[in-house]
Amino acid sequence: MAGVNDHLSFSPSGYGQLRTREGVRYRYYNDLGAHKGNCTWGVGTLAHFGVCTDVELKRQVTANDVNRALAKHVRKLESYVRKKVNSHPLTQAQFDGLISFSYNVASPSSVMESANNGDMKAVRDKMLKYVYVFQHDKHGRKVGAPYLLPPLYHRRLEESAAFK
Protein backbone atom coordinates (compact mmCIF):
# COMPACT_ATOMS: atom_id res chain seq x y z
CA MET A 1 0.00 0.00 0.00
CA ALA A 2 1.38 3.39 -1.01
CA GLY A 3 1.90 6.06 1.64
CA VAL A 4 0.42 9.52 1.31
CA ASN A 5 3.89 11.10 1.18
CA ASP A 6 5.51 8.78 -1.36
CA HIS A 7 5.51 11.59 -3.94
CA LEU A 8 7.68 13.87 -1.77
CA SER A 9 11.45 14.25 -2.06
CA PHE A 10 13.84 16.55 -0.28
CA SER A 11 13.63 19.84 -2.13
CA PRO A 12 16.55 21.89 -3.52
CA SER A 13 15.64 24.51 -0.91
CA GLY A 14 15.79 21.83 1.79
CA TYR A 15 19.25 20.77 0.60
CA GLY A 16 20.43 24.38 0.69
CA GLN A 17 19.08 24.96 4.18
CA LEU A 18 20.59 21.70 5.43
CA ARG A 19 23.99 22.60 4.01
CA THR A 20 23.76 26.00 5.72
CA ARG A 21 22.64 24.51 9.06
CA GLU A 22 25.28 21.80 9.09
CA GLY A 23 28.01 23.74 7.35
CA VAL A 24 30.23 22.21 4.68
CA ARG A 25 33.78 21.24 5.46
CA TYR A 26 36.14 19.63 3.00
CA ARG A 27 38.12 17.97 5.75
CA TYR A 28 37.70 15.97 8.94
CA TYR A 29 36.99 17.90 12.14
CA ASN A 30 35.73 17.49 15.70
CA ASP A 31 32.13 18.60 15.54
CA LEU A 32 32.01 20.61 18.79
CA GLY A 33 35.65 21.51 19.15
CA ALA A 34 38.67 19.57 20.28
CA HIS A 35 38.01 16.93 22.94
CA LYS A 36 34.27 17.59 23.03
CA GLY A 37 32.76 16.17 19.88
CA ASN A 38 32.86 13.40 17.37
CA CYS A 39 34.99 13.00 14.28
CA THR A 40 32.97 14.41 11.37
CA TRP A 41 33.47 15.58 7.80
CA GLY A 42 31.59 17.15 4.91
CA VAL A 43 28.01 18.14 5.72
CA GLY A 44 27.95 16.76 9.25
CA THR A 45 28.83 13.23 8.15
CA LEU A 46 29.88 11.21 11.20
CA ALA A 47 33.18 9.42 10.64
CA HIS A 48 33.12 7.86 14.12
CA PHE A 49 32.35 8.63 17.76
CA GLY A 50 35.16 10.33 19.64
CA VAL A 51 37.66 12.86 18.44
CA CYS A 52 39.52 12.60 15.16
CA THR A 53 43.05 11.26 15.07
CA ASP A 54 45.86 13.54 13.94
CA VAL A 55 45.93 11.66 10.63
CA GLU A 56 42.20 12.22 10.12
CA LEU A 57 42.48 15.93 10.91
CA LYS A 58 44.94 16.26 8.02
CA ARG A 59 42.68 14.34 5.60
CA GLN A 60 41.02 16.38 2.87
CA VAL A 61 37.80 15.39 1.09
CA THR A 62 36.52 16.53 -2.28
CA ALA A 63 33.25 18.27 -3.11
CA ASN A 64 32.26 15.09 -4.94
CA ASP A 65 32.87 13.02 -1.76
CA VAL A 66 30.76 15.45 0.27
CA ASN A 67 27.90 15.56 -2.24
CA ARG A 68 27.80 11.77 -2.62
CA ALA A 69 27.71 11.19 1.14
CA LEU A 70 25.00 13.83 1.59
CA ALA A 71 22.81 12.46 -1.21
CA LYS A 72 23.17 8.89 0.09
CA HIS A 73 22.19 9.89 3.61
CA VAL A 74 19.24 11.99 2.38
CA ARG A 75 17.90 9.09 0.26
CA LYS A 76 17.84 6.89 3.36
CA LEU A 77 16.08 9.60 5.34
CA GLU A 78 13.48 10.15 2.61
CA SER A 79 12.61 6.45 2.78
CA TYR A 80 12.54 6.57 6.57
CA VAL A 81 10.19 9.59 6.71
CA ARG A 82 7.91 8.19 3.98
CA LYS A 83 7.69 4.86 5.85
CA LYS A 84 7.06 6.42 9.26
CA VAL A 85 4.66 9.16 8.08
CA ASN A 86 2.43 7.20 5.71
CA SER A 87 -1.06 8.16 6.93
CA HIS A 88 -1.04 11.95 7.28
CA PRO A 89 -0.09 14.09 4.27
CA LEU A 90 2.82 16.49 4.76
CA THR A 91 3.52 19.75 3.02
CA GLN A 92 6.86 20.10 1.23
CA ALA A 93 8.10 22.36 4.05
CA GLN A 94 7.10 19.79 6.68
CA PHE A 95 8.79 16.97 4.76
CA ASP A 96 11.95 19.07 4.41
CA GLY A 97 11.85 19.92 8.12
CA LEU A 98 11.58 16.25 9.07
CA ILE A 99 14.46 15.32 6.76
CA SER A 100 16.70 18.04 8.22
CA PHE A 101 15.70 17.08 11.76
CA SER A 102 16.29 13.37 11.09
CA TYR A 103 19.66 14.17 9.51
CA ASN A 104 20.70 15.52 12.88
CA VAL A 105 18.80 13.17 15.24
CA ALA A 106 19.06 9.39 15.10
CA SER A 107 15.68 7.58 14.96
CA PRO A 108 13.28 10.30 16.14
CA SER A 109 10.36 7.85 16.26
CA SER A 110 8.13 9.82 18.64
CA VAL A 111 8.30 12.84 16.32
CA MET A 112 7.42 10.67 13.33
CA GLU A 113 4.55 9.05 15.22
CA SER A 114 3.06 12.47 15.99
CA ALA A 115 3.43 13.52 12.34
CA ASN A 116 1.79 10.31 11.17
CA ASN A 117 -1.11 11.01 13.55
CA GLY A 118 -1.44 14.56 12.21
CA ASP A 119 -0.60 16.16 15.56
CA MET A 120 1.56 18.97 14.23
CA LYS A 121 1.73 20.80 17.58
CA ALA A 122 3.23 17.67 19.16
CA VAL A 123 5.72 17.40 16.29
CA ARG A 124 6.94 20.94 16.94
CA ASP A 125 6.99 20.48 20.74
CA LYS A 126 8.96 17.23 20.46
CA MET A 127 11.43 18.65 17.94
CA LEU A 128 12.16 21.55 20.28
CA LYS A 129 13.23 19.11 23.00
CA TYR A 130 16.23 18.00 20.91
CA VAL A 131 18.45 20.95 21.84
CA TYR A 132 20.85 19.22 24.23
CA VAL A 133 24.07 17.45 23.36
CA PHE A 134 26.16 14.83 25.08
CA GLN A 135 29.81 14.03 24.83
CA HIS A 136 30.55 10.48 23.67
CA ASP A 137 33.53 8.27 24.31
CA LYS A 138 35.29 6.46 21.47
CA HIS A 139 32.76 3.61 21.77
CA GLY A 140 29.79 5.93 21.29
CA ARG A 141 28.67 5.85 24.93
CA LYS A 142 27.35 9.08 26.41
CA VAL A 143 29.62 10.59 29.05
CA GLY A 144 28.89 13.52 31.33
CA ALA A 145 25.77 15.61 31.65
CA PRO A 146 23.88 16.99 28.65
CA TYR A 147 24.22 20.68 27.89
CA LEU A 148 22.09 23.13 25.93
CA LEU A 149 23.56 24.20 22.62
CA PRO A 150 21.97 27.54 21.54
CA PRO A 151 22.70 27.08 17.79
CA LEU A 152 20.88 23.75 18.00
CA TYR A 153 17.86 25.49 19.52
CA HIS A 154 17.80 27.97 16.61
CA ARG A 155 18.08 25.09 14.15
CA ARG A 156 15.11 23.34 15.76
CA LEU A 157 13.07 26.55 15.50
CA GLU A 158 13.75 26.61 11.75
CA GLU A 159 13.08 22.90 11.25
CA SER A 160 9.84 22.99 13.23
CA ALA A 161 8.48 26.25 11.78
CA ALA A 162 6.25 24.42 9.27
CA PHE A 163 4.50 22.58 12.13
CA LYS A 164 2.96 25.67 13.82
List the uncertain runs. none
Radius of gyration: 16 Å
Give me the secondary-structure category: alpha+beta
Largest β-sheet summary = 3 strands, antiparallel
**Average pLDDT metric:** 91
Number of strands: 5
Helix percent reads 40-55%
Tell me the strand order in the biggest sheet.
1-2-3
Strand content: 15-25%
User: What's the total helix number?
Assistant: 7
What characteristic shape results from the CA principal axes? globular
The H-and-E topology, N to C, reads as: HEEEHHHHHEEH
Could you give the distance between the termini?
29 Å
Q: What this model shows, in words?
A:
The chain has 164 residues and is α+β, with helices and mostly antiparallel strands. The protein has seven helices and five strands; from the N terminus they run H-E-E-E-H-H-H-H-H-E-E-H. Strands 1-2-3 form a three-stranded antiparallel β-sheet. A two-stranded antiparallel sheet has the order 4-5.
Question: How do the helices and strands line up, and which of them pair or pack?
Answer:
Elements: H1 12-22, E1 25-30, E2 39-42, E3 45-48, H2 54-58, H3 63-84, H4 92-104, H5 109-116, H6 120-127, E4 132-136, E5 142-148, H7 150-160
Antiparallel strand pairs: 1-2, 2-3, 4-5
Write a compact overview of the structure shown.
This protein is an alpha+beta fold. Helix content is 48%, strand content 16%. The chain is globular.
